[in-house]
Amino acid sequence: MIAFAARIGAGVRLTLADVGAGARLFFALLARSPRALARFVLVREQVFYLGNRSLSIIGVSGLFVGFVLALQGYYTLQRYGSAEAVGLLVALSLVRELGPVVTALLFAGRAGTSLTAEIGLMKAGEQLTAMEMMAVDPVQRVLAPRFWGGFIAMPLLAAVFSAVGIIGGWLVAVPLIGIDSGAFWSQMQGGVEVFADVGNGVIKSLVFGVTVTFVALLQGYACKPTPEGVSAATTRTVVLSSLAVLALDFMLTAMMFSI
């Protein structure tokens, strides 16, 4: 019994130590952000690296999600004589939920793992230590530009996902199924509110961008400087980011719809 309690206490202590280390790194990133943003060219490079190179998977995924939403929405709405509202269903599903959430999950799998592997390899190759020896702050020079690059890229990718998904829904609903194009767009225009629907989606994408990018940087910065350590950190990035995105989506949705 004593050994069991000791193991639980050790696990709790290690968890609290990890949370404290993550909090210190997060506040260090915020403290060094003004100097990092002053050299915006570094942030711009990371926006290109994280955002532009993720466009293909985001665009293709958004297109097929739009296809599926239009088909499922049509089969459900036609039972109630409201098949013309499939455009509204597709738009609301994308801008409120699926756009930010699916984009964040794809971003974690594509850009998050890349960030973790990059930082982990720099740590394993002692490049971060070399920066410290040359009086260069690695948090300011390496981590902060990547943090803000992910923060900027995430809502842009979510917007692309939603836009392509709506186009995919139109391709299925209008040319394939035969719904009137005017009804498709008018229902969407009349039912989607800019601040209540699109604005909530933007807020979610910003929160997810901070979460996924920070988890990826933390795992890379804190990993063991070995090939096995980098591999394990990359796996933890996907798992922790995905769980954090789904949990935050529930909490944000509950708060947004309760106000």
TrEMBL record:
Origin superkingdom: Bacteria
Subcellular locations according to the entry: Cell inner membrane
Entry GO MF terms: phospholipid transporter activity
One Gene Ontology term, aspect cellular component: ATP-binding cassette (ABC) transporter complex
Residues passing through the membrane, by range: 54-74, 86-108, 147-173, 194-218, 238-257
Keyword tags: Cell inner membrane, Cell membrane, Membrane, Transmembrane, Transmembrane helix, Transport
Assembly and oligomerization: The complex is composed of two ATP-binding proteins (MlaF), two transmembrane proteins (MlaE), two cytoplasmic solute-binding proteins (MlaB) and six periplasmic solute-binding proteins (MlaD).
Family of this protein: Belongs to the MlaE permease family.
Role according to the record: Part of the ABC transporter complex MlaFEDB, which is involved in a phospholipid transport pathway that maintains lipid asymmetry in the outer membrane by retrograde trafficking of phospholipids from the outer membrane to the inner membrane. Probably responsible for the translocation of the substrate across the membrane.
Protein name: Intermembrane phospholipid transport system permease protein MlaE
Species of provenance: Roseateles saccharophilus
Lineage: Bacteria, Pseudomonadati, Pseudomonadota, Betaproteobacteria, Burkholderiales
